[in-house]
Structures are given as C-alpha cells and as structure tokens.
Amino acid sequence: MTGRPAAYRRRPTDVVPLAVWALSVALVSASVVLNQADPAAARGVPGFGEAAWWWAVAVMALQAGALARWGDHPRAALLAVAAGVPALFVLGDAIGSGLLVVMVAAYRAVLARPARRLLPSLLGAAVLVALGVTASVVRTGAEGWIVLIGGPLQALAAVGLPAVLGSVLASRRDALDALAATAQAQHRERDALVQVAVERERTAMARELHDIAAHHLSGIAVMTGAIGRQIDVDPEGAKVAVAQVREQSTAMLRDLRNLVVLLRDVDNPPEPGGQVRMETLAGIDDLVARAEESGARVALEKVGPVAQVAASGAVGPLAQLAAYRVVQEALANAARHAPGAPCEVRLDAGEEGRVEVVVRNSRPDPGEVPGHHDPGYGLVGMHERAELTGASLRYGRTLDGGWQVTLSVPTAAGPSTSEGQDR
User: Fold this and answer.
1) 302: closest CA among 345, 251, 240, 239?
2) How many Cα atoms occupy the beta-carbon half-sphere of 399 within 13 Å?
3) What pLDDT, on a 0 to 100 scale, did the predictor assign at position 358?
4) Pick from 111, 116, 103: nearest CA to 170
5) Phi and psi at residue 409, to the nearest 5°
6) Does residue 4 surpass a pLDDT of 90?
7) For 274-286, how does the pLDDT look when each residue is reduced to its tens digit (9 = 90+)?
8) Cβ pair 13, 77 in contact under 8 A
C-alpha cells in the first residue's frame, strides 16, 4: 500500500473538533447577521472585524484544540473547553455557539468513563458554563430572574443532557459487550464440552481396544506357551496350536475392525465385504468357544430363557454389549492372573426382571505361575459399563481362592450400583 507517513495522517478524532469549531464560528456569524438585521433579536453580539469577534473566534479555536489534544484525557478536555465559556461572554446572546464544544466534551467524557466517576468534573464544567452564561446575560443588560436562572439552565443543557445521553449509550455499549462476552464464553464452553466428549470417546475406544486385545492376546499367550512344549514332543499338536494362534489373531483383527466401524459416523455404511457384528448375549457362546479352542478350560452354563430374552429386546443392545465385554474381560483376567485354572461362565435368566452374568475361576494350578502384569483398567471399564447401562456389578475373591465377577443386568431401567474390591 502507498500513502502518507503515519505522522502526517489525520487521526479520525481530529475531524470532530475541527467540525465543532467550524460549526461554532458559523453560528456566531449567523448571530452577527441576525443582529445586523434586527438588533433586538440578538443583543450584545459583536460585528465582523471587531476585537470581540476575533477574540471569540480565537477562544473557540483554543477549545477545539483542547478537545483534540486531550482526547485521551476526557476530564482535562471537559474542564479545558468549559473554562473557555466565561471568556466568551463578549458574544452576548450568541454565547450558546461556544457551548457546542462543551456538549461534545461532556458526551465523550461519559462514554469514556462512568458518569459517577466524572461527577466532580461535570459539576466543575457546569459551574464554569453557568458563570460564562450569567456574565453574557448581564452584558446584554438583562435584569431579574433571567440573570439568576439563565446560567444554570444553560449549564444543565450543555453538560447534563449530553451526560445523560452518553450514559445511556455507554450502558447500551456495555450491555452489548456483555452479550458478546457471554456469547464467547458460551462458545468456549461448547468447545470445552466437545473436547470433553472427544476425550471420553477416546477413553472409551482405548478401553474397548484394551478389552478386545487383552482377551485375544491372553489366549495367544497361552497357546504359544503350549507350542513351546509341544514343538519337540508333539509336532502335529504344535501345528494345530499354530493354526489356533492364527485364528485368534484373525479374530482379534476382525473385532478391532468391527470396533473401528462402530465408532464411525452412523451415516457412513460399512466397508464392503464384512458385516459388522454387534456383540450380544448370544455372542457369549462364540466367546467361550474361542477361549476353549485357545486351550483354556471354560464351561458355559445357561439357566432360563437366555436366548429368548436376548432376542426379545428386553435387554438393550448397549446392555448386551456391556455383558459381552464383562465376560471377555473376566476371561482375559483369568488367563493372566490364574493361568490353567478352570473357569465357569453362567448366564441366568431364570429370575424375572434381570439377567445375571457370572464369571468364576478357581485358583491357578500349582504348576502354573502367574506372570507379572501392570495394573490395568479392566475393572474400571466394567464399573463404567455397569453404571452406563443401569446394571449392578460385584467382584471379589471366592472362598477357594479364586475370583468371581457378577453382573446383574436389568430388563427394565433401574438404579446402578457397583460394589466390590480392587483386584
């Protein structure tokens, strides 16, 4: 861009004082013309070229200069321009022309600062205006009440009315600023809520991945341990175990893919070639079967019409997914913490109003030593799933030294409770 240097550019605020000075001079000139046409209409107004005329023009120029120079200091600017009013008493009835700059200064001052903080300055400016107007009234030869009330009324009009107008506009501006700030705060709050929701989704996805990977990798670890012992003494059995490891790996990849698809936008269809399988109570049969294929000793017991309850919709899909994941996590924990121990999965729909899912494992075999595992979030995930679906979760050690997890899923909405001890 091209243009004049910044030092030579006129500030936008300088235009107002210049316009006020030009308008004030124009009003005085109009009063002079009116006085020449009818001396009784504008008394005490000096003619063009007289010393009083030039004196008034110079004072008005000084007032405009003070308004421009001290625009950043509204109190000083208001008092400076008001101090020029007594010097304009030579204008007689035309002294009102010199009050225009006072009105602009008072309006600006109130816009810049609250009126209550400017009260001393406003009162001082009003006193100066009243003195100047009273002197001009006396100069015109007026007598009586006009001398007493003329100055205060002019001061009220020149200082009070702009102050009231400025206060109203300042209040409106503050209200608009408050609304804008509130809108920005609400926007930030929405962003924060979105961020929290995103973090929750990430946490949920991480726990889903943990459940899936832990279950399959636990089975793979058990099978690879068996392969290490079979490879020399039973090569054919080792080959079968390798095939089972391959099946477990493929199942893990399939489950991970299903999870990723479930987390996508529901409006986007799944990729061709695969139907996304939603884990339900009916899917626990396959879960137990895969665990048995991996070498774990798992038994499944069903009591009551489990399949009918699952298919009827009495247990919602989210609650069925929670039950599936609890069984999956419990079996993975048993494989990690009690390798070789027999497990029992029990689905009980015999009691009306709820479905109870129980996963119990015995203490590990004497020859099996549990490996070291860092604390995870399996039980925390179970807690949150139970709370989310209104289910009741209990877990803890059994009398024989094993571990039991019990999830009671209501077939109707009910309060969520969760109790037990950390594993």
Assistant:
1) 345
2) 0
3) 94
4) 111
5) -100, 120
6) no
7) 444 557 888 898 8
8) no
Say if residues 338 and 403 touch (Cβ distance below 8 Å): yes
Whether the CB-CB separation of 80 and 63 falls below 8 Å is answered with: yes
In terms of Cβ atoms closer than 10 Å to its own Cβ (0-12, 13-18, 19+), residue 299 is exposed
Q: Residue 274 — φ and ψ, nearest 5°?
A: -160, 130
Could you give the dihedral angle defined by the CA atoms of residues 378, 384, 389 and 393, in that order, rounded to the nearest 10 degrees? 60
Instruction: Please choose, from the candidates 370, 289, 376, the residue with its C-alpha nearest in 3D space to the C-alpha of residue 327.
Output: 289
* Residue pair 20/67 in contact by the 8 Å Cβ criterion: yes
| Look-up of token digits 């689905």 | 347
First to last CA, the chain: 71
Q: Are 291 and 334 in contact (CB under 8 A)?
A: no
| Residue indicated by tokens 């477990």 | 248
Longest alpha-carbon distance in the chain: 134
Nearest-angstrom CA–CA distance, 243 and 220: 11
Q: Is the dihedral of CA 80, 81, 83, 84 positive or negative?
A: positive
Residue for token pair 């479930």: 262
Query: Is residue 166 a contact partner of residue 113, using CB atoms and an 8 Å limit?
Result: no
Tokens of 86: 């007594």
From 100, 90, 94, select the one nearest 22 (Cα to Cα).
100
pLDDT in tens, 323-378: 888 898 888 888 888 888 899 999 999 888 889 999 999 887 766 655 544 455 56
**Among 65-69, 193-197, 256-260, 330-334, whose mean pLDDT is lowest?**
256-260
Q: What pLDDT score was predicted for residue 9?
A: 43
Phi, psi for residue 410 in degrees, rounded to 5: -75, 145
Distances (CA, A) of 224 to 216, 332, 333: 12, 15, 17
pTM score, two decimals? 0.41
How many helices and strands, by DSSP H and E, does the chain display?
Answer: 12, 6
Torsion (CA) 405, 409, 413, 415 in degrees, nearest 10: -20
Nearest to 72 by CA among 13, 16, 118: 13
DSSP-H helix ranges across 38-160: 51-69, 74-83, 100-112, 119-139, 145-155
CB 279 within 8 A of CB 317: no
393 by DSSP, 3-state: which?
strand
Q: Does residue 382 surpass a pLDDT of 70?
A: yes
Mean pLDDT across 87-105: 82
